[in-house]
Design brief:
116 residues; mainly alpha; two-stranded antiparallel sheet; 5 helices; 43% helix
């Protein structure tokens, strides 16, 4: 699919993404990054719903305020998937992991996080 840009009159190619921006950027650890991002998004949503300040969230989570700030800004380098799940538990969130065979229609298996 192509379209013309309004100001330059040049054709631009549009490519549909995979649904994982990290895969689209060619990152080797794309699945883990996407999983961590979705877990952090769920954490931030719980913190928002509870209207917790960063200091209050830090106390509930058992971490310091700078780590909460990193979470709030999606700076996730220092957080493992397991740790993010543990933090969700600390906010009274259940986590359910379902393992199933991938459909034949998809080339590769994947990890997905769905927040209810």
């Amino acid at each position: 699919m192509a379209r013309t840009t309004a100001n330059k009159g040049m054709a631009a190619e549009i490519t549909r993404g995979s649904g994982n921006v990290f895969v689209d950027l060619g990152m080797a650890d794309a699945e883990e990054r996407q999983t961590k991002l979705r877990l952090a998004y769920a954490l931030n949503a719980v913190i928002d719903r509870a209207r917790l300040s960063q200091a209050a969230a830090a106390e509930r989570l058992g971490i310091n305020q700078p780590k909460v700030s990193a979470l709030r800004n999606y700076k996730l380098e220092g957080f493992s998937v397991e740790r993010l799940m543990t933090l969700l538990n600390a906010l009274d969130q259940d986590i359910e992991i379902v393992i199933r065979k991938k459909p034949r229609s998809r080339a590769a298996a994947r990890i997905s996080v769905v927040a209810a």
